[in-house]
Structure to design on (351 residues):
């Protein structure tokens, strides 16, 4: 781990990520800077998502909002997993109510090879935003992130979100030369985007594989894992904790954990004590309260959060998070109260 300025190395988040004792269980939320916050909706009014991600002053403001409101232990850069593709010249947009939509989906080798190689100069706005955020955050770590090659590939091949990823799986199995060419290109883009963020000052990075849970373990191991592993290998020299996360990945969690990372993100479907049995002994865990449970009465939230915290003790380090992103209709005051609960939680003493 490289030295972090301003006592960052001793922050609860980074200590837990390294499997070291922390003063309290650190907590942050995926999608914490987003639609659940009225101040977010106010600054985003009339500004398209990808436009907002390219305006450093907006990126800084939106990233800081949940830190100010909730007192979380880490900020996550306001961005989107398709942003580097857009910045490199891929014709895509985020359509309200739909998600990322690609104008010309990748269906053959020529299209795969036409995906531009990563160029850090094309995302200079990210470097500018991260520099300013690090200055404003002080002792609070900033988490950078990127989409994993498989998830990016699925958008590029399907042309947008998909429930069954039929075209993606068909290419994976039926056109292996196209698949390899596309995934090799996306490894460079994912790794390059993470590197830009870390070199600008992000204290940790997370790779999101949103759609990997729809694969069989055998398909994941053969067609996806080598490329995710390559992303993490390319940024190993940065010395920052790396988080690997996917949704509905219980069946492939052990395979995901075979990658050399410090932290495994766990969605809400797998109890953390079981997750610990499936991952490497030295890996910390991140997660994993069901995002829907924050709509329950407070006594239910308190009890369920306590269960997550107690199960998290079975890992060398635990970063409390939801098992996926904050839902847009979540009451922000509940999240603030949840942060206070995590910070003040008193663990049960074994008899």
């Amino acid at each position: 781990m490289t030295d972090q300025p301003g006592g960052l190395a001793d922050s609860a988040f980074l200590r837990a990520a390294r499997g070291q004792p922390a003063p309290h269980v650190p907590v942050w939320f995926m999608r914490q800077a987003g639609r659940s916050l009225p101040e977010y909706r106010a600054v985003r009014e009339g500004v398209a998502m990808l436009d907002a991600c390219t305006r450093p002053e907006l990126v800084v403001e939106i990233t800081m909002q949940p830190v100010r409101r909730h007192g979380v232990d880490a900020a996550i850069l306001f961005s989107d997993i398709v942003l580097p593709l857009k910045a490199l010249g891929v014709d895509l947009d985020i359509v309200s109510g739909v998600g990322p939509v690609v104008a010309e989906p990748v269906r053959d080798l020529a299209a795969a090879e036409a995906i531009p190689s990563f160029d850090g100069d094309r995302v200079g706005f990210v470097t500018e935003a991260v520099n300013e955020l690090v200055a404003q955050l002080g002792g609070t770590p900033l988490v950078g992130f990127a989409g994993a090659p498989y998830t990016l590939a699925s958008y590029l091949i399907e042309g947008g979100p998909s429930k069954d990823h039929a075209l993606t799986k068909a290419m994976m199995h039926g056109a292996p030369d196209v698949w390899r060419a596309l995934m090799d290109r996306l490894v460079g883009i994912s790794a390059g985007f993470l590197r830009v963020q870390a070199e600008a000052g992000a204290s940790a990075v997370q790779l999101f594989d949103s759609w990997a849970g729809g694969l069989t373990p055998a398909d994941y191991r053969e067609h996806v894992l080598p490329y995710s592993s390559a992303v993490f290998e390319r940024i190993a020299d940065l010395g920052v904790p790396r988080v690997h996360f996917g949704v509905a990945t219980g069946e492939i969690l052990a395979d995901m954990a075979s990658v050399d990372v410090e932290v495994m993100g766990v969605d809400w479907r797998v109890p953390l004590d079981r997750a610990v049995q499936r991952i490497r002994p030295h890996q910390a865990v991140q997660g994993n309260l069901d995002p829907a449970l924050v709509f329950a009465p407070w006594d239910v939230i308190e009890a369920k959060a306590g269960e997550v915290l107690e199960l998290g003790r079975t890992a060398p380090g635990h970063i409390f998070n939801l098992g996926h992103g904050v839902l847009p209709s979540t009451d922000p005051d509940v999240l603030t109260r949840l942060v206070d609960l995590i910070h003040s939680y008193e663990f049960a003493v074994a008899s």
In short: The two ends are 37 Å apart (CA to CA). Residues 79 and 210 are 15 Å apart (CA to CA).
